[in-house]
Protein backbone atom coordinates (compact mmCIF):
# COMPACT_ATOMS: atom_id res chain seq x y z
CA UNK A 1 0.00 0.00 0.00
CA UNK A 2 2.93 2.37 0.63
CA UNK A 3 4.02 1.67 -2.94
CA UNK A 4 0.50 2.55 -4.14
CA UNK A 5 0.75 5.91 -2.34
CA UNK A 6 4.06 6.62 -4.05
CA UNK A 7 2.72 5.73 -7.51
CA UNK A 8 -0.62 7.53 -7.13
CA UNK A 9 -1.15 10.73 -9.09
CA UNK A 10 -1.39 13.96 -7.08
CA UNK A 11 -4.84 15.01 -5.97
CA UNK A 12 -7.82 12.77 -5.33
CA UNK A 13 -6.04 9.55 -6.36
CA UNK A 14 -3.18 10.09 -3.89
CA UNK A 15 -5.66 11.07 -1.17
CA UNK A 16 -7.58 7.83 -1.68
CA UNK A 17 -4.34 5.81 -1.58
CA UNK A 18 -3.36 7.55 1.68
CA UNK A 19 -6.74 6.85 3.29
CA UNK A 20 -6.59 3.19 2.22
CA UNK A 21 -3.17 2.94 3.88
CA UNK A 22 -4.36 4.69 7.05
CA UNK A 23 -7.25 2.24 7.26
CA UNK A 24 -4.59 -0.37 8.08
CA UNK A 25 -3.30 1.79 10.97
CA UNK A 26 -2.68 -1.18 13.26
CA UNK A 27 0.05 -2.49 10.93
CA UNK A 28 1.91 0.85 10.72
CA UNK A 29 4.60 2.10 13.11
CA UNK A 30 3.53 5.07 15.21
CA UNK A 31 5.78 7.63 13.48
CA UNK A 32 4.73 6.37 10.04
CA UNK A 33 1.06 6.56 10.98
CA UNK A 34 1.56 10.11 12.26
CA UNK A 35 3.40 11.21 9.10
CA UNK A 36 0.81 9.79 6.68
CA UNK A 37 -2.05 11.23 8.78
CA UNK A 38 -0.61 14.74 8.43
CA UNK A 39 -0.15 14.25 4.67
CA UNK A 40 -3.75 13.08 4.31
CA UNK A 41 -5.09 16.09 6.25
CA UNK A 42 -3.05 18.51 4.15
CA UNK A 43 -4.14 16.93 0.87
CA UNK A 44 -7.80 16.78 2.00
CA UNK A 45 -7.64 20.51 2.80
CA UNK A 46 -6.36 21.21 -0.73
CA UNK A 47 -9.13 19.07 -2.22
CA UNK A 48 -11.70 20.64 0.15
CA UNK A 49 -12.83 17.15 1.12
CA UNK A 50 -14.35 17.40 4.62
CA UNK A 51 -14.79 13.67 5.25
CA UNK A 52 -11.30 12.79 4.02
CA UNK A 53 -9.89 15.49 6.31
CA UNK A 54 -11.75 13.91 9.23
CA UNK A 55 -10.38 10.46 8.33
CA UNK A 56 -6.87 11.95 8.40
CA UNK A 57 -7.60 13.52 11.78
CA UNK A 58 -8.91 10.15 12.97
CA UNK A 59 -5.60 8.50 12.03
CA UNK A 60 -3.70 11.31 13.78
CA UNK A 61 -5.72 10.74 16.96
CA UNK A 62 -4.98 7.01 16.79
CA UNK A 63 -1.27 7.81 16.60
CA UNK A 64 -1.62 9.97 19.71
CA UNK A 65 -3.35 7.08 21.49
CA UNK A 66 -0.49 4.77 20.51
CA UNK A 67 1.81 7.31 22.23
CA UNK A 68 -0.56 7.44 25.26
CA UNK A 69 -1.14 11.14 24.55
CA UNK A 70 -4.82 11.03 25.47
CA UNK A 71 -5.33 14.79 25.80
CA UNK A 72 -4.13 15.49 22.25
CA UNK A 73 -6.23 12.63 20.88
CA UNK A 74 -9.31 14.05 22.62
CA UNK A 75 -8.58 17.55 21.30
CA UNK A 76 -8.72 16.15 17.75
CA UNK A 77 -11.66 13.74 18.06
CA UNK A 78 -14.18 15.89 19.98
CA UNK A 79 -14.53 18.73 17.38
CA UNK A 80 -14.51 16.24 14.49
CA UNK A 81 -17.23 14.12 16.10
CA UNK A 82 -19.41 17.22 16.53
CA UNK A 83 -19.52 17.62 12.72
CA UNK A 84 -21.29 14.30 12.11
CA UNK A 85 -24.35 12.31 13.13
CA UNK A 86 -25.73 8.82 12.58
CA UNK A 87 -29.06 10.01 11.16
CA UNK A 88 -27.48 11.09 7.84
CA UNK A 89 -26.57 7.95 5.81
CA UNK A 90 -23.75 9.83 4.07
CA UNK A 91 -22.15 10.74 7.41
CA UNK A 92 -23.01 7.61 9.40
CA UNK A 93 -19.89 5.55 8.71
CA UNK A 94 -17.40 8.24 9.73
CA UNK A 95 -19.55 9.13 12.76
CA UNK A 96 -19.26 5.56 14.01
CA UNK A 97 -15.49 5.50 13.28
CA UNK A 98 -14.94 8.68 15.31
CA UNK A 99 -17.23 7.49 18.11
CA UNK A 100 -15.36 4.19 18.45
CA UNK A 101 -12.03 6.03 18.66
CA UNK A 102 -13.55 8.12 21.47
CA UNK A 103 -14.15 4.80 23.27
CA UNK A 104 -10.37 4.32 23.30
CA UNK A 105 -9.83 7.81 24.72
CA UNK A 106 -12.33 7.15 27.53
CA UNK A 107 -10.75 3.76 28.22
CA UNK A 108 -7.24 5.20 28.46
CA UNK A 109 -8.49 7.62 31.12
CA UNK A 110 -10.36 4.80 32.93
CA UNK A 111 -13.36 7.14 33.19
CA UNK A 112 -15.76 4.28 32.59
CA UNK A 113 -18.76 5.51 34.56
CA UNK A 114 -18.87 8.78 32.65
CA UNK A 115 -18.19 7.08 29.33
CA UNK A 116 -20.75 4.26 29.46
CA UNK A 117 -23.78 6.46 28.58
CA UNK A 118 -21.97 7.48 25.39
CA UNK A 119 -21.25 3.83 24.47
CA UNK A 120 -24.88 2.86 25.12
CA UNK A 121 -26.06 5.75 22.93
CA UNK A 122 -23.78 4.71 20.04
CA UNK A 123 -24.83 1.07 20.44
CA UNK A 124 -28.52 2.05 20.34
CA UNK A 125 -27.97 3.95 17.10
CA UNK A 126 -25.99 1.09 15.57
CA UNK A 127 -28.74 -1.39 16.46
CA UNK A 128 -31.36 0.92 14.94
CA UNK A 129 -29.40 1.18 11.67
CA UNK A 130 -28.52 -2.55 11.77
CA UNK A 131 -24.75 -2.05 11.83
CA UNK A 132 -23.71 -5.34 13.44
CA UNK A 133 -20.00 -4.50 13.31
CA UNK A 134 -20.43 -1.36 15.42
CA UNK A 135 -22.85 -3.13 17.80
CA UNK A 136 -20.31 -5.91 18.38
CA UNK A 137 -17.54 -3.37 18.98
CA UNK A 138 -19.70 -1.44 21.49
CA UNK A 139 -20.47 -4.62 23.40
CA UNK A 140 -16.80 -5.64 23.39
CA UNK A 141 -15.93 -2.18 24.74
CA UNK A 142 -18.43 -2.62 27.59
CA UNK A 143 -16.96 -6.06 28.24
CA UNK A 144 -13.41 -4.64 28.44
CA UNK A 145 -14.49 -1.83 30.79
CA UNK A 146 -16.40 -4.21 33.06
CA UNK A 147 -13.32 -6.44 33.17
CA UNK A 148 -11.16 -3.46 34.20
CA UNK A 149 -13.68 -2.75 37.00
CA UNK A 150 -13.47 -6.43 38.15
CA UNK A 151 -17.05 -7.20 37.02
CA UNK A 152 -15.90 -10.44 35.37
CA UNK A 153 -19.33 -12.05 34.98
CA UNK A 154 -20.83 -8.93 33.38
CA UNK A 155 -17.79 -8.66 31.11
CA UNK A 156 -18.18 -12.22 29.87
CA UNK A 157 -21.92 -11.69 29.32
CA UNK A 158 -21.27 -8.63 27.12
CA UNK A 159 -18.64 -10.51 25.09
CA UNK A 160 -20.93 -13.45 24.40
CA UNK A 161 -23.63 -10.96 23.33
CA UNK A 162 -21.06 -9.38 21.02
CA UNK A 163 -20.26 -12.80 19.54
CA UNK A 164 -23.93 -13.26 18.61
CA UNK A 165 -23.68 -10.21 16.31
CA UNK A 166 -20.59 -11.48 14.46
CA UNK A 167 -20.01 -13.94 11.66
CA UNK A 168 -16.67 -15.79 11.91
CA UNK A 169 -16.80 -16.50 8.17
CA UNK A 170 -17.15 -12.82 7.23
CA UNK A 171 -13.80 -10.95 7.03
CA UNK A 172 -15.55 -7.70 8.01
CA UNK A 173 -15.90 -9.04 11.57
CA UNK A 174 -12.31 -10.24 12.01
CA UNK A 175 -11.12 -7.14 13.90
CA UNK A 176 -14.09 -7.31 16.29
CA UNK A 177 -13.60 -11.05 16.82
CA UNK A 178 -9.94 -10.54 17.74
CA UNK A 179 -10.93 -8.06 20.46
CA UNK A 180 -13.77 -10.29 21.71
CA UNK A 181 -11.60 -13.41 21.88
CA UNK A 182 -8.87 -11.49 23.74
CA UNK A 183 -11.30 -10.12 26.34
CA UNK A 184 -12.97 -13.50 26.92
CA UNK A 185 -9.50 -15.02 27.31
CA UNK A 186 -8.63 -12.37 29.91
CA UNK A 187 -11.85 -13.16 31.80
CA UNK A 188 -11.16 -16.87 31.97
CA UNK A 189 -7.53 -16.27 32.95
CA UNK A 190 -8.69 -14.02 35.79
CA UNK A 191 -10.82 -16.83 37.24
CA UNK A 192 -7.97 -19.33 36.68
CA UNK A 193 -9.82 -21.25 33.96
CA UNK A 194 -6.67 -21.59 31.88
CA UNK A 195 -8.08 -24.14 29.42
CA UNK A 196 -10.88 -21.83 28.28
CA UNK A 197 -8.53 -18.84 28.34
CA UNK A 198 -6.06 -20.67 26.08
CA UNK A 199 -8.86 -21.69 23.69
CA UNK A 200 -10.03 -18.11 23.09
CA UNK A 201 -6.55 -16.55 22.98
CA UNK A 202 -5.50 -19.17 20.40
CA UNK A 203 -8.54 -18.21 18.30
CA UNK A 204 -7.45 -14.56 18.52
CA UNK A 205 -3.88 -15.48 17.52
CA UNK A 206 -5.11 -17.48 14.53
CA UNK A 207 -7.21 -14.54 13.30
CA UNK A 208 -4.32 -12.09 13.82
CA UNK A 209 -2.05 -14.27 11.71
CA UNK A 210 -4.73 -14.69 9.07
CA UNK A 211 -5.27 -10.92 8.78
CA UNK A 212 -1.60 -10.02 9.40
CA UNK A 213 -2.54 -7.64 12.23
CA UNK A 214 0.84 -7.63 13.94
CA UNK A 215 -0.05 -5.11 16.65
CA UNK A 216 -2.91 -7.29 17.91
CA UNK A 217 -0.88 -10.47 17.40
CA UNK A 218 1.74 -9.08 19.78
CA UNK A 219 -0.98 -8.24 22.31
CA UNK A 220 -2.48 -11.76 22.04
CA UNK A 221 0.94 -13.37 22.51
CA UNK A 222 1.44 -11.22 25.62
CA UNK A 223 -1.88 -12.50 26.97
CA UNK A 224 -0.83 -16.08 26.23
CA UNK A 225 2.37 -15.57 28.21
CA UNK A 226 0.30 -14.52 31.25
CA UNK A 227 -1.76 -17.72 30.91
CA UNK A 228 1.43 -19.77 30.98
CA UNK A 229 2.51 -17.69 34.00
CA UNK A 230 -0.69 -18.64 35.85
CA UNK A 231 -0.03 -22.29 34.93
CA UNK A 232 3.58 -21.87 36.18
CA UNK A 233 4.90 -23.06 32.82
CA UNK A 234 7.70 -20.50 32.85
CA UNK A 235 9.64 -21.67 29.75
CA UNK A 236 6.54 -21.34 27.56
CA UNK A 237 5.63 -18.04 29.22
CA UNK A 238 9.11 -16.71 28.40
CA UNK A 239 8.87 -17.96 24.82
CA UNK A 240 5.46 -16.29 24.32
CA UNK A 241 6.49 -12.86 25.71
CA UNK A 242 9.71 -12.87 23.67
CA UNK A 243 7.63 -13.56 20.56
CA UNK A 244 5.29 -10.69 21.53
CA UNK A 245 8.28 -8.33 21.81
CA UNK A 246 9.70 -9.51 18.50
CA UNK A 247 6.40 -8.92 16.69
CA UNK A 248 5.76 -5.45 18.16
CA UNK A 249 9.24 -4.35 17.07
CA UNK A 250 8.22 -5.13 13.48
CA UNK A 251 5.43 -2.57 13.86
CA UNK A 252 6.83 0.07 16.20
CA UNK A 253 10.56 -0.39 15.77
CA UNK A 254 12.61 0.24 18.89
CA UNK A 255 9.89 2.14 20.74
CA UNK A 256 9.87 1.13 24.44
CA UNK A 257 7.36 -1.52 25.48
CA UNK A 258 7.12 -1.09 29.25
CA UNK A 259 3.94 -3.13 29.60
CA UNK A 260 5.41 -6.17 27.85
CA UNK A 261 8.71 -5.80 29.72
CA UNK A 262 6.75 -5.80 33.00
CA UNK A 263 5.16 -9.11 31.99
CA UNK A 264 8.58 -10.51 31.04
CA UNK A 265 10.05 -9.39 34.37
CA UNK A 266 7.10 -10.89 36.27
CA UNK A 267 7.78 -14.23 34.56
CA UNK A 268 11.44 -14.17 35.64
CA UNK A 269 10.45 -13.03 39.13
CA UNK A 270 8.08 -15.99 39.60
CA UNK A 271 10.68 -18.25 37.98
CA UNK A 272 13.23 -17.22 40.59
CA UNK A 273 15.50 -15.44 38.08
CA UNK A 274 15.49 -12.16 39.98
CA UNK A 275 18.73 -10.80 38.50
CA UNK A 276 17.31 -11.21 35.03
CA UNK A 277 14.07 -9.50 36.01
CA UNK A 278 15.90 -6.57 37.64
CA UNK A 279 18.15 -6.12 34.60
CA UNK A 280 15.20 -6.07 32.18
CA UNK A 281 13.28 -3.55 34.28
CA UNK A 282 16.23 -1.18 34.74
CA UNK A 283 17.26 -1.29 31.08
CA UNK A 284 13.66 -0.84 29.92
CA UNK A 285 13.09 2.17 32.16
CA UNK A 286 16.35 3.81 31.08
CA UNK A 287 15.55 3.25 27.41
CA UNK A 288 12.03 4.65 27.86
CA UNK A 289 13.37 7.90 29.34
CA UNK A 290 15.98 8.16 26.57
CA UNK A 291 13.34 7.56 23.92
CA UNK A 292 11.03 10.24 25.35
CA UNK A 293 13.83 12.79 25.25
CA UNK A 294 14.65 12.02 21.61
CA UNK A 295 11.09 11.53 20.28
CA UNK A 296 9.39 14.41 18.49
CA UNK A 297 5.97 13.32 19.73
CA UNK A 298 4.67 14.81 22.95
CA UNK A 299 3.56 12.20 25.45
CA UNK A 300 0.79 12.39 28.01
CA UNK A 301 2.63 12.76 31.29
CA UNK A 302 -0.12 11.31 33.47
CA UNK A 303 -0.33 8.06 31.51
CA UNK A 304 3.44 7.71 31.26
CA UNK A 305 4.03 8.47 34.95
CA UNK A 306 1.39 5.94 35.97
CA UNK A 307 3.06 3.29 33.79
CA UNK A 308 6.37 4.08 35.49
CA UNK A 309 4.70 3.68 38.88
CA UNK A 310 3.52 0.16 37.97
CA UNK A 311 6.93 -0.55 36.47
CA UNK A 312 8.75 0.56 39.64
CA UNK A 313 6.37 -1.47 41.79
CA UNK A 314 7.48 -4.64 39.98
CA UNK A 315 11.12 -3.53 40.31
CA UNK A 316 10.71 -2.87 44.05
CA UNK A 317 9.20 -6.31 44.50
CA UNK A 318 12.22 -7.91 42.81
CA UNK A 319 14.67 -5.89 44.96
CA UNK A 320 12.86 -6.95 48.12
CA UNK A 321 12.89 -10.64 47.14
CA UNK A 322 16.57 -10.36 46.25
CA UNK A 323 17.38 -8.72 49.59
CA UNK A 324 18.67 -5.49 48.04
CA UNK A 325 16.96 -3.29 50.59
CA UNK A 326 18.87 -0.14 49.70
CA UNK A 327 17.66 -0.28 46.10
CA UNK A 328 14.25 -1.36 47.37
CA UNK A 329 14.02 1.76 49.53
CA UNK A 330 15.15 4.02 46.69
CA UNK A 331 12.59 2.49 44.33
CA UNK A 332 9.82 3.00 46.87
CA UNK A 333 10.72 6.69 46.93
CA UNK A 334 10.42 6.77 43.13
CA UNK A 335 7.00 5.15 43.40
CA UNK A 336 5.86 7.80 45.88
CA UNK A 337 7.28 10.59 43.69
CA UNK A 338 5.61 9.08 40.63
CA UNK A 339 2.23 8.91 42.34
CA UNK A 340 2.65 12.53 43.42
CA UNK A 341 3.26 13.51 39.78
CA UNK A 342 0.19 11.61 38.67
CA UNK A 343 -1.97 13.24 41.31
CA UNK A 344 -0.54 16.67 40.46
CA UNK A 345 -1.16 16.17 36.72
CA UNK A 346 -4.65 14.69 37.04
CA UNK A 347 -6.04 16.06 40.28
CA UNK A 348 -5.09 19.75 40.50
CA UNK A 349 -8.42 20.62 42.10
CA UNK A 350 -8.13 17.75 44.55
CA UNK A 351 -4.57 18.80 45.39
CA UNK A 352 -5.66 22.39 46.02
CA UNK A 353 -8.37 21.11 48.31
CA UNK A 354 -5.83 18.96 50.17
CA UNK A 355 -3.49 21.93 50.55
CA UNK A 356 -6.34 24.02 51.99
CA UNK A 357 -7.23 21.25 54.40
CA UNK A 358 -3.58 20.98 55.35
CA UNK A 359 -3.38 24.69 56.21
CA UNK A 360 -6.55 24.45 58.27
CA UNK A 361 -5.26 21.37 60.06
CA UNK A 362 -1.94 23.12 60.67
CA UNK A 363 -3.67 26.03 62.39
CA UNK A 364 -5.86 23.66 64.37
CA UNK A 365 -2.75 21.78 65.47
CA UNK A 366 -1.18 25.04 66.69
CA UNK A 367 -4.27 25.83 68.72
CA UNK A 368 -4.31 22.29 70.04
CA UNK A 369 -0.71 22.56 71.17
CA UNK A 370 -1.49 25.83 72.97
CA UNK A 371 -4.42 24.22 74.72
CA UNK A 372 -2.27 21.22 75.52
CA UNK A 373 0.27 23.46 77.24
CA UNK A 374 -2.48 25.07 79.33
CA UNK A 375 -4.31 21.93 80.37
CA UNK A 376 -2.35 18.81 79.41
CA UNK A 377 -4.19 16.44 81.71
CA UNK A 378 -7.65 17.60 80.66
CA UNK A 379 -6.65 17.49 76.99
CA UNK A 380 -5.41 13.90 77.34
CA UNK A 381 -8.73 12.89 78.85
CA UNK A 382 -10.74 14.49 76.05
CA UNK A 383 -8.39 13.02 73.45
CA UNK A 384 -9.00 9.56 74.88
CA UNK A 385 -12.77 10.09 74.73
CA UNK A 386 -12.55 11.34 71.15
CA UNK A 387 -10.37 8.39 70.19
CA UNK A 388 -12.90 5.93 71.59
CA UNK A 389 -15.80 7.71 69.87
CA UNK A 390 -13.95 7.87 66.55
CA UNK A 391 -13.03 4.22 66.86
CA UNK A 392 -16.66 3.33 67.45
CA UNK A 393 -17.74 5.46 64.48
CA UNK A 394 -15.13 3.86 62.23
CA UNK A 395 -16.18 0.38 63.32
CA UNK A 396 -19.83 1.31 62.70
CA UNK A 397 -18.99 2.72 59.25
CA UNK A 398 -17.02 -0.40 58.35
CA UNK A 399 -19.90 -2.59 59.51
CA UNK A 400 -22.45 -0.49 57.60
CA UNK A 401 -20.31 -0.66 54.46
CA UNK A 402 -20.01 -4.42 54.86
CA UNK A 403 -23.78 -4.76 55.20
CA UNK A 404 -24.28 -2.56 52.14
CA UNK A 405 -21.93 -4.72 50.06
CA UNK A 406 -23.69 -7.85 51.28
CA UNK A 407 -27.07 -6.40 50.26
CA UNK A 408 -25.71 -5.47 46.84
CA UNK A 409 -24.24 -8.94 46.44
CA UNK A 410 -27.55 -10.52 47.47
CA UNK A 411 -29.48 -8.32 45.03
CA UNK A 412 -27.14 -9.33 42.22
CA UNK A 413 -27.58 -12.99 43.09
CA UNK A 414 -31.36 -12.56 43.16
CA UNK A 415 -31.32 -10.74 39.82
CA UNK A 416 -29.17 -13.48 38.29
CA UNK A 417 -31.44 -16.17 39.70
CA UNK A 418 -34.48 -14.32 38.35
CA UNK A 419 -32.84 -13.99 34.93
CA UNK A 420 -31.96 -17.69 34.83
CA UNK A 421 -35.46 -18.64 35.97
CA UNK A 422 -37.06 -16.44 33.30
CA UNK A 423 -34.78 -17.91 30.66
CA UNK A 424 -35.60 -21.46 31.77
CA UNK A 425 -39.33 -20.76 31.54
CA UNK A 426 -38.91 -19.17 28.11
CA UNK A 427 -36.83 -22.12 26.89
CA UNK A 428 -39.42 -24.57 28.19
CA UNK A 429 -42.25 -22.65 26.49
CA UNK A 430 -40.32 -22.53 23.23
CA UNK A 431 -39.59 -26.26 23.41
CA UNK A 432 -43.26 -27.02 24.08
CA UNK A 433 -44.32 -24.75 21.21
CA UNK A 434 -42.00 -26.53 18.78
CA UNK A 435 -43.19 -29.93 20.00
CA UNK A 436 -46.84 -29.00 19.51
CA UNK A 437 -46.13 -27.50 16.09
CA UNK A 438 -44.35 -30.68 15.02
CA UNK A 439 -47.21 -32.80 16.36
CA UNK A 440 -49.81 -30.77 14.45
CA UNK A 441 -47.69 -30.97 11.32
CA UNK A 442 -47.23 -34.75 11.58
CA UNK A 443 -50.91 -35.51 12.23
CA UNK A 444 -53.25 -32.78 10.99
CA UNK A 445 -50.84 -31.85 8.19
CA UNK A 446 -50.76 -35.40 6.89
CA UNK A 447 -54.55 -35.75 7.14
CA UNK A 448 -55.21 -32.47 5.33
CA UNK A 449 -52.70 -33.41 2.63
CA UNK A 450 -54.54 -36.72 2.15
CA UNK A 451 -57.86 -34.87 1.84
CA UNK A 452 -56.36 -32.48 -0.71
CA UNK A 453 -54.96 -35.30 -2.87
CA UNK A 454 -58.26 -37.21 -2.88
CA UNK A 455 -60.32 -34.10 -3.64
CA UNK A 456 -58.00 -33.27 -6.53
CA UNK A 457 -58.32 -36.85 -7.74
CA UNK A 458 -62.13 -36.60 -7.64
CA UNK A 459 -62.03 -33.24 -9.47
CA UNK A 460 -59.70 -34.56 -12.18
CA UNK A 461 -61.80 -37.77 -12.65
CA UNK A 462 -59.29 -39.85 -14.62
CA UNK A 463 -60.37 -42.27 -17.35
CA UNK A 464 -62.59 -45.02 -16.01
CA UNK A 465 -63.61 -43.05 -12.94
CA UNK A 466 -67.30 -43.75 -12.16
CA UNK A 467 -69.87 -42.77 -9.56
CA UNK A 468 -68.96 -45.72 -7.36
CA UNK A 469 -65.33 -44.63 -7.31
CA UNK A 470 -66.38 -41.08 -6.51
CA UNK A 471 -68.47 -42.29 -3.56
CA UNK A 472 -65.59 -44.43 -2.29
CA UNK A 473 -63.11 -41.53 -2.41
CA UNK A 474 -65.63 -39.18 -0.79
CA UNK A 475 -65.99 -41.72 2.02
CA UNK A 476 -62.20 -41.65 2.39
CA UNK A 477 -62.26 -37.87 2.57
CA UNK A 478 -65.13 -37.93 5.06
CA UNK A 479 -63.30 -40.39 7.36
CA UNK A 480 -60.06 -38.46 7.28
CA UNK A 481 -61.86 -35.12 7.82
CA UNK A 482 -63.71 -36.61 10.79
CA UNK A 483 -60.41 -37.87 12.25
CA UNK A 484 -58.82 -34.45 11.68
CA UNK A 485 -61.68 -32.73 13.52
CA UNK A 486 -61.39 -35.17 16.41
CA UNK A 487 -57.60 -34.75 16.57
CA UNK A 488 -57.91 -30.96 16.47
CA UNK A 489 -60.54 -30.99 19.21
CA UNK A 490 -58.37 -33.16 21.46
CA UNK A 491 -55.30 -31.03 20.72
CA UNK A 492 -57.14 -27.82 21.65
CA UNK A 493 -58.41 -29.50 24.83
CA UNK A 494 -54.84 -30.40 25.81
CA UNK A 495 -53.45 -26.95 24.93
CA UNK A 496 -56.02 -25.21 27.12
CA UNK A 497 -54.67 -27.01 30.20
CA UNK A 498 -51.23 -27.04 31.78
CA UNK A 499 -52.13 -30.22 33.67
CA UNK A 500 -55.07 -32.63 33.82
CA UNK A 501 -56.04 -35.23 36.41
CA UNK A 502 -55.61 -38.87 35.48
CA UNK A 503 -59.41 -39.27 35.77
CA UNK A 504 -59.96 -36.39 33.30
CA UNK A 505 -57.57 -38.09 30.91
CA UNK A 506 -59.41 -41.41 31.19
CA UNK A 507 -62.76 -39.72 30.56
CA UNK A 508 -61.39 -37.81 27.59
CA UNK A 509 -59.79 -40.96 26.19
CA UNK A 510 -63.13 -42.74 26.46
CA UNK A 511 -64.84 -39.86 24.61
CA UNK A 512 -62.12 -39.85 21.98
CA UNK A 513 -62.54 -43.61 21.32
CA UNK A 514 -66.31 -43.26 21.15
CA UNK A 515 -66.00 -40.62 18.40
CA UNK A 516 -63.20 -42.47 16.61
CA UNK A 517 -65.13 -45.77 16.46
CA UNK A 518 -68.62 -44.26 16.13
CA UNK A 519 -69.28 -45.43 12.55
CA UNK A 520 -67.30 -48.68 12.75
CA UNK A 521 -70.36 -50.94 13.08
CA UNK A 522 -68.37 -54.08 12.30
CA UNK A 523 -66.05 -53.54 15.26
CA UNK A 524 -67.09 -54.11 18.86
CA UNK A 525 -64.98 -52.33 21.47
CA UNK A 526 -64.83 -51.99 25.23
CA UNK A 527 -63.02 -49.69 27.64
CA UNK A 528 -62.11 -50.45 31.26
CA UNK A 529 -60.48 -48.11 33.75
CA UNK A 530 -59.14 -48.68 37.26
CA UNK A 531 -57.86 -45.59 39.05
CA UNK A 532 -56.74 -45.86 42.69
CA UNK A 533 -56.07 -42.17 43.39
CA UNK A 534 -56.15 -38.82 41.64
CA UNK A 535 -52.89 -37.30 40.34
CA UNK A 536 -51.84 -34.90 37.58
CA UNK A 537 -50.54 -35.47 34.04
CA UNK A 538 -48.84 -32.71 32.04
CA UNK A 539 -50.41 -31.57 28.76
CA UNK A 540 -47.40 -32.84 26.80
CA UNK A 541 -47.71 -36.26 28.44
CA UNK A 542 -51.41 -36.42 27.59
CA UNK A 543 -50.72 -35.44 23.96
CA UNK A 544 -48.22 -38.31 23.58
CA UNK A 545 -50.72 -40.81 25.05
CA UNK A 546 -53.48 -39.63 22.69
CA UNK A 547 -51.19 -40.04 19.67
CA UNK A 548 -50.15 -43.52 20.84
CA UNK A 549 -53.80 -44.62 21.22
CA UNK A 550 -54.65 -43.07 17.83
CA UNK A 551 -51.83 -45.01 16.12
CA UNK A 552 -52.66 -48.34 17.76
CA UNK A 553 -56.44 -48.11 17.18
CA UNK A 554 -55.91 -46.98 13.58
CA UNK A 555 -53.62 -49.99 12.95
CA UNK A 556 -56.16 -52.34 14.51
CA UNK A 557 -58.97 -51.00 12.28
CA UNK A 558 -56.94 -50.95 9.07
CA UNK A 559 -54.76 -54.04 9.34
CA UNK A 560 -55.89 -56.51 12.03
CA UNK A 561 -59.09 -57.73 10.26
CA UNK A 562 -60.51 -58.25 13.76
CA UNK A 563 -63.97 -57.35 15.08
CA UNK A 564 -63.15 -56.65 18.73
CA UNK A 565 -60.88 -54.06 20.41
CA UNK A 566 -60.26 -54.09 24.16
CA UNK A 567 -58.81 -50.96 25.86
CA UNK A 568 -57.82 -50.93 29.54
CA UNK A 569 -56.32 -48.11 31.63
CA UNK A 570 -55.03 -48.90 35.15
CA UNK A 571 -53.38 -46.63 37.72
CA UNK A 572 -52.39 -48.10 41.10
CA UNK A 573 -50.65 -45.04 42.54
CA UNK A 574 -49.64 -41.47 41.71
CA UNK A 575 -47.24 -41.29 38.76
CA UNK A 576 -47.86 -44.87 37.55
CA UNK A 577 -50.22 -46.30 34.98
CA UNK A 578 -50.67 -49.14 32.48
CA UNK A 579 -52.46 -48.62 29.15
CA UNK A 580 -53.33 -51.83 27.25
CA UNK A 581 -54.95 -52.10 23.79
CA UNK A 582 -55.69 -55.55 22.34
CA UNK A 583 -57.52 -56.86 19.25
CA UNK A 584 -58.61 -60.31 18.07
CA UNK A 585 -57.24 -59.85 14.56
CA UNK A 586 -54.80 -61.81 12.43
CA UNK A 587 -51.69 -60.74 14.38
CA UNK A 588 -48.19 -60.67 12.89
CA UNK A 589 -44.62 -61.79 13.44
CA UNK A 590 -42.92 -59.01 15.35
CA UNK A 591 -39.39 -59.80 14.22
CA UNK A 592 -40.41 -59.55 10.57
CA UNK A 593 -42.78 -56.60 10.53
CA UNK A 594 -41.87 -54.48 13.57
CA UNK A 595 -39.59 -51.95 11.83
CA UNK A 596 -42.02 -49.17 11.00
CA UNK A 597 -44.67 -51.42 9.42
CA UNK A 598 -47.46 -50.42 11.82
CA UNK A 599 -45.92 -47.19 13.06
CA UNK A 600 -44.44 -49.08 16.02
CA UNK A 601 -41.23 -47.08 15.83
CA UNK A 602 -43.24 -43.86 16.20
CA UNK A 603 -45.09 -45.31 19.21
CA UNK A 604 -41.82 -46.46 20.77
CA UNK A 605 -40.31 -42.98 20.37
CA UNK A 606 -43.32 -41.37 22.04
CA UNK A 607 -43.12 -43.89 24.88
CA UNK A 608 -39.48 -42.95 25.42
CA UNK A 609 -40.46 -39.25 25.50
CA UNK A 610 -42.76 -39.92 28.48
CA UNK A 611 -40.33 -42.40 30.09
CA UNK A 612 -42.73 -45.33 29.68
CA UNK A 613 -42.18 -48.98 28.74
CA UNK A 614 -43.49 -50.14 25.33
CA UNK A 615 -44.43 -53.85 25.05
CA UNK A 616 -45.93 -55.62 22.00
CA UNK A 617 -47.11 -59.24 21.95
CA UNK A 618 -48.50 -60.78 18.76
CA UNK A 619 -48.56 -64.04 16.83
CA UNK A 620 -50.23 -64.83 13.50
CA UNK A 621 -53.83 -65.81 14.17
CA UNK A 622 -53.74 -64.75 17.84
CA UNK A 623 -54.34 -61.01 17.61
CA UNK A 624 -52.13 -58.20 18.90
CA UNK A 625 -51.68 -56.76 22.41
CA UNK A 626 -49.86 -53.43 22.97
CA UNK A 627 -48.99 -52.17 26.46
CA UNK A 628 -47.70 -48.75 27.55
CA UNK A 629 -46.43 -49.19 31.10
CA UNK A 630 -45.13 -46.46 33.41
CA UNK A 631 -43.99 -47.55 36.84
CA UNK A 632 -46.29 -50.60 37.27
CA UNK A 633 -45.64 -54.30 36.99
CA UNK A 634 -46.17 -55.74 33.53
CA UNK A 635 -48.93 -57.99 34.82
CA UNK A 636 -52.17 -56.29 35.80
CA UNK A 637 -52.21 -55.44 39.51
CA UNK A 638 -55.16 -55.97 41.80
CA UNK A 639 -56.70 -52.80 43.13
CA UNK A 640 -57.92 -52.18 46.65
CA UNK A 641 -61.39 -51.04 47.48
CA UNK A 642 -60.45 -47.37 47.16
CA UNK A 643 -59.85 -47.75 43.42
CA UNK A 644 -62.22 -46.11 40.96
CA UNK A 645 -63.45 -48.64 38.37
CA UNK A 646 -65.34 -47.76 35.19
CA UNK A 647 -66.34 -49.90 32.20
CA UNK A 648 -67.69 -48.95 28.80
CA UNK A 649 -68.75 -51.36 26.06
CA UNK A 650 -70.10 -50.86 22.58
Notes on the structure:
By secondary structure, this protein is α+β, with helices and mostly antiparallel strands. Among the domains are: 107 residues; 153 residues, Heat Shock Protein 90, CATH 3.30.565. The protein has 24 helices and eight strands. Strands 6-7-5-4-2-8 form a six-stranded mixed beta sheet, with helices on one face. Strands 1-3 form a two-stranded antiparallel ribbon. The longest helix has 85 residues.
Short description:
Helices cover 73% and strands 7% of the residues. The protein has helices at residues 2-7, 12-22, 30-47, 50-66, 70-81, 89-109, 112-128, 132-148, 152-164, 174-190, 194-211, 214-230, 234-252, 258-271, 274-294, 301-322, 325-346, 348-374, 376-460, 467-495, 502-516, 539-559, 590-593, 600-609, and strands at 499-501, 524-531, 536-538, 564-571, 577-583, 613-618, 624-630, 644-649. The strands form 2 sheets. The protein has a 6-stranded mixed sheet, covered by helices on one side. Strands 1-3 form a two-stranded antiparallel sheet.
